[in-house]
Amino acid sequence: MTSQGTLGVAVIGTGRMGADHVRRIDEVISGARVAAVVDIDEARVKSVADGIEGAVPYTDPAAAMADPAVDAVLIASPGPAHEAALLTAFDHDLPVLCEKPLTPDPASALRVMEAEQKLGHRRVQVGFMRRYDAGYRKLKALLDRGTYGRPLMLHNKHRNADTPPGFTDAMTVHDSAVHEIDVTRWLLDDEITAVRVLRPAPSGNAAEGLSDPQLILFETAAGRLVDTELFVTCGFGYQVVCEAVCEGGTARIGDDHGVFVNTAGHWGGAITPGFVERFEEAYDRQVQHWVNATRRGEVEGPGCWDGYAAAAVCAAGVRAQESGERVAVELIERPALYR
Ligand SMILES: NC(=O)c1ccc[n+]([C@@H]2O[C@H](COP(=O)([O-])OP(=O)(O)OC[C@H]3O[C@@H](n4cnc5c(N)ncnc54)[C@H](O)[C@@H]3O)[C@@H](O)[C@H]2O)c1
Ligand SMILES: O[C@H]1[C@H](O)[C@@H](O)[C@H](O)[C@@H](O)[C@H]1O
Q: Which of 19, 67, 158, 258 has minimal Cβ neighbours within 10 Å of its Cβ?
């Protein structure tokens, strides 16, 4: 850190999310600066570094993490590249904010968790940014206070206008439903124990071979049921809605509440186009909290255990998709570091 305590961050992966995090750290976040940017695509990393004072471009994550100006790492490369980047960060004992997923499968998530335990302290915050969304935080506070009694069920809707090319059924779980997996565990303070997936006749807008929409059902250890409509080619916009059904009332967040317009032949408002707009404040808050905690020498928020548990539920979810059966989630006992 500089003498003023400014955190030098290396951002690994400068695609859609990484480039946005670089902009965020440069323009929005206080107490941090972009010290290095890394991408295997040399042209891309150079163009992202251009115009950011002091940001050194690298094509090798390990070289960036060895740079003495780097105090912390934000990983925004694709999920399969996360394990290697995390293990290298541990070699340098660097604090990490790792975009979801921690890793794409439970075996690799376990390896990361074991390596972190060898360090003897938590180093990783996982980018489950919904925990930093104002609506989800209000819902969490209501549930924690028991304002409407015990929560019994959650109903979620997760709709994307469309998907990047090559999006598969498994990605609907790993990439999209992983957020509902995390908010279910967090909101209810409960583990998901089994998954079922129901698939109606697919929408004609879904690419060949993609089963969209889907209905995913989670059972939890405390006997709650959580359903999620996942519709990633809905075509009309981005919607993430969560309704908690409690013994004494229900509470719902996520409906669009922008400007309401009446005009000839039309009433209503605009729909949110995508996750960047819907969760912009949540991404800002997530990164600011990470920077603040890191500068205090602390680690907060969702960690490796949450990333591992999410990967275990995803693995069960993909098996449930393939088999059409109820699949139990296999979890190891929670290690002491994460209790
Ligand atoms: N929290 C959210 O809402 C959210 C939204 C979108 C993506 N994500 C996550 O962010 C991460 C990145 O997603 P994206 O949409 O920006 O992907 P992207 O494909 O747009 O960008 C990834 C970038 O990483 C680079 N890259 C690939 N392998 C690398 C490696 N080994 N080292 C360094 N760079 C490497 C690629 O060249 C590319 O520029 C993923 O983990 C994804 O799941 C999170
Ligand atoms: O990677 C993205 C991202 O995680 C979004 O938050 C989610 O809504 C999308 O479904 C997913 O594809």
A: 258
Q: Which ligand is nearest to the CA of 178?
A: 2
62-86 as b/e: b if 16+ CB within 10 A: eebbeeebbbbbbbbbebebbbbbb
- Our mutation pick for probing the ligand 2 site, out of 82, 158, 160, 183, counting the most ligand atoms within 8 A of Cβ, is 160
**Whose CA is closest to atom 8 on ligand 2?**
176
Question: For the chain, which domains are there?
Answer: 7-130 (3.40.50.720), 132-278+310-338 (3.30.360.10)
Atom 5, ligand 1: residue with shortest CA distance: 17
Maximum pairwise Cα distance, the chain: 65
d(CA 129, CA 74): 14
Kindly give the residue spans of alpha helices, DSSP state H, lying in 210-303: 275-278, 280-295
Tens of pLDDT along 165-221? 999 999 999 999 999 999 999 999 999 999 999 999 999 999 999 999 999 999 999
Which ligand minimizes its atom distance to the CA of 61? 1
pTM above 0.90, yes or no: yes
